[in-house]
Structure prediction request, 287 residues.
Amino acid sequence: MKNPLAKIFAKFSRKEKAPPPKVEEPVLIQPAKINGVTVREVPGTNELVFKNVSLIGADGEPLIDYGSFTLKPGDRMMIKGPAGCGKSAGLAALRGAWLLGGTGEITVPPEVRFVPQEDYFPDRSLLGMICAPDPVTAFTRDQVVQAMKDAGLEDFIEQMDDISKRGEYWKNTLSGGQKNKVGFAGAFLHAENTKILIVDEITAALDAKSEAALYPKLLERMKHGIVISVAHHSTLAPQHNIFATVANGKVSYSDTLPAAFATHDPTEAPANSNDVARPARPPQAAP
Prediction:
């Protein structure tokens, strides 16, 4: 006679098959196509991929051809070219902010921070501006104070949460160099959670000593991610491992320092390039 409990034991001893793992699909920035440029924001990725990206200017004519490249964590790319050549346009496109048209495909992680060349002073206290775009509650006061100290803004710590002094006040009060330091403070504060940091002339108004101190510190904070710099100061060039040169509407890439990046004003002090190790990997062509 069969054991009447056999069926019960058999039922509980069966191993249920685990459901298949979910495959996370890329999240497309809306709209998916920015006038022809497809931008894929992919959670979990650490790479930036441009595939056959070219952009159109305000006159409807081709502006710049970025071609194809892949950047990986640890890469530091410097872009150089004449004013108005479109070197910042591709950086706007990867954020879904280039509305003049183009073609190609960009894959990017969501964790991108952009420090623009123009003054950015939203209607917030100084504390709020450094925390932007996050609310001030996203960080502790000690974290913000440390970021300000690291950026050389110690003199403004006592005023940072004075709500009577907001964006327009600071825009008209701070010097050009101090405004650059506000950008550094924000980048320092957000560095841990940033995978791609784009800086557009972040040292433009700094004296040589401040530039030599702050830029290597920024690269050190971003050693886990990618840094893209639009810069004219050749003293910064040795701290990068990929060089993007814009000429005749096309971007060319090199892992060795081009002559155009090596020329500098003799009055500029040399940056302390020994503070940051340069990765040796050249840019990889996108598949």
User: Anything to note?
Assistant: The helical segments are 6-13, 89-93, 126-131, 141-151, 167-173, 176-190, 208-221, 259-262. The chain has a mean pLDDT of 82. The first strand starts at residue 27 and ends at 34.
